[in-house]
From TrEMBL:
Keywords assigned by UniProt, alphabetized: Amino-acid biosynthesis, Branched-chain amino acid biosynthesis, Cytoplasm, Leucine biosynthesis, Magnesium, Manganese, Metal-binding, NAD, Oxidoreductase
Domain Isopropylmalate dehydrogenase-like, residue spans: 4-343
Annotated positions for site Important for catalysis: 141, 186
Annotated positions binding substrate: 96, 106, 134, 218
Annotated binding of Mg(2+), by residue: 218, 242, 246
Name of the molecule in the record: 3-isopropylmalate dehydrogenase
Coiled-coil portions: none
SUPFAM superfamilies associated with the record: Isocitrate/Isopropylmalate dehydrogenase-like
Homology family: Belongs to the isocitrate and isopropylmalate dehydrogenases family. LeuB type 1 subfamily.
Name of the gene encoding the protein in the UniProt record: leuB
GO MF, one example: magnesium ion binding
EC number(s) per entry: 1.1.1.85
CC cofactor: Mn(2+); Mg(2+)
Quaternary structure annotation from Swiss-Prot or TrEMBL: Homodimer.
Length: 354
């Protein structure tokens, strides 16, 4: 098949992990006879430096015309002055809003070898297989903001429609899995959360085969560590989802392993690892590329409908996780490039065997 893929490398380790993702996509295209074209565009701090805009018009137009978007990461200390007029993260948020990708899917599975690196005991992490659906284009991230010399505000706003559509996404997904949805909110304090909870309860009535439980976000942060295997699909608002998914990634051994797909818009999906630009390791070839490579598998499956190819990439990552020398975050001493090479070799072997 023909597909036009926009690549947004961004900042810090963004370009290092994005090029790993592109290498895997190129190999899949060659092996399975697809015609993928890749166009790189600026986003984040890189785009501020080159164009004075974290999401320049050329990037916007390319994203709107793409079949899928692969993003590295944005941000870093160079652009982090709290008084700066423009920030790299604004480019990422504007891109998500532009594409209308309201459902951010963040799966978490535990590979046995990575589970050994988890801070939790093996009996606690056994059987963990959950998916977060994080609402991505609403809430406090996108509400009105004010700032004076002595005060600042961030408005948190959700409409019924915004909650309904992400809730349906979660329930539809749960139907294909273990049929349980945990809706996370702060309904004991926040009005937006009380609306969230009432919409969740109403939507659940359309899915009598799926169990719904409500959970407050503070205790959810604890339960993720004490009984993570009890969860199937976890749906939550934008900021709670951001925080809980970084926490959850540690259960799997490293933040560098967690992929994501941002879906639900009329156009392309956005695929990115959940981690950031990791300024502390940027430029040192220490970045774990597996979160990005697993995001590429999600891209193949969700935006291009290529499930055999997606399975091949996931099987190759499993093989490398089991047998390979891994990056430092997973206890190894392999470079980003060496791990990517190992995945490419494993893809080749899996495709050969298929
Ligand atoms: N989607 C994105 O573009 C995105 C996501 C999160 C944070 N950020 C931005 O990234 C910048 C840095 O944020 P931060 O330091 O709080 O979070 P971070 O996710 O960049 O890093 C947190 C820690 O995890 C490590 N880490 C992250 N990814 C890794 C990988 N692939 N391999 C090995 N180790 C990895 C880092 O070295 C660091 O110690 C900030 O500007 C933030 O806004 C961007
Ligand atoms: C960089 C930042 C705006 C972003 C977010 O909060 O959504 C990041 O933390 C993420 O998880 O993708
Ligand atoms: Mg985050």
């Amino acid at each position: 098949m023909k597909a036009s893929i926009v690549v947004l490398p961004g900042d810090g380790i963004g370009p290092e992990v994005a090029s790993a993702g592109v290498a895997v996509l190129r190999q899949i295209a060659e092996r399975f006879g697809h015609d993928f074209t890749f166009t790189e565009h600026a986003i984040g701090g890189d785009a501020i430096d080159r164009f004075g805009d974290p999401l320049p018009p050329a990037t916007r137009e390319a994203c709107l015309a793409a079949d899928a978007i692969l993003l590295g990461a944005v941000g870093g200390p160079k652009w982090s002055d709290p008084n700066a007029p423009v920030r790299p993260e604004q480019g990422l948020l504007a891109m998500r809003k532009l594409l209308g990708v309201f459902a951010n899917v963040r799966p978490l599975k535990l590979h046995p070898r990575a589970a050994a690196l988890s801070p939790l005991k093996p009996e606690r992490t056994k059987g963990v297989d959950l998916v977060f659906i994080r609402e991505l284009t609403g809430g406090i991230y996108f509400g009105a903001k004010t700032r004076t010399d002595d005060a600042a505000t961030d408005e948190c706003r959700y409409t019924v429609g915004e909650i309904e559509r992400v809730m349906r996404h979660a329930f539809d997904l749960a139907r294909t899995r273990r049929k349980k949805v945990t809706s996370v909110d702060k309904a004991n304090v926040l009005e937006t959360s009380r609306l969230w909870r009432s919409v969740a309860t109403r939507i659940a009535a359309d899915y009598p085969d799926v169990e719904l439980e409500h959970q407050l976000v503070d205790s959810m942060a604890m339960h993720l560590l004490t009984r993570p295997a009890d969860y199937d699909v976890i749906v939550t608002e934008n900021m709670f989802g951001d925080i809980l998914t970084d926490e959850a990634s540690v259960l799997a051994g490293s933040l560098g392993l967690s992929p994501s797909a941002s879906l639900g818009g009329p156009g392309a999906g956005v695929y990115e690892p959940i981690h950031g630009s990791a300024p502390d390791i940027a430029g040192k070839a220490l970045a774990n590329p597996l979160g990005t490579i697993l995001s590429v598998a999600m891209l193949l499956r969700h935006s291009l409908g290529l499930s055999t190819e997606a399975d091949t990439v996931e099987a190759a990552v499993d093989y490398v996780m089991e047998n390979g020398n891994l990056t430092r975050d997973l206890g190894g001493d392999a470079t980003t490039h060496a791990v990517t090479r190992a995945v490419l070799d494993a893809c080749e072997a899996k495709a050969e065997a298929a």
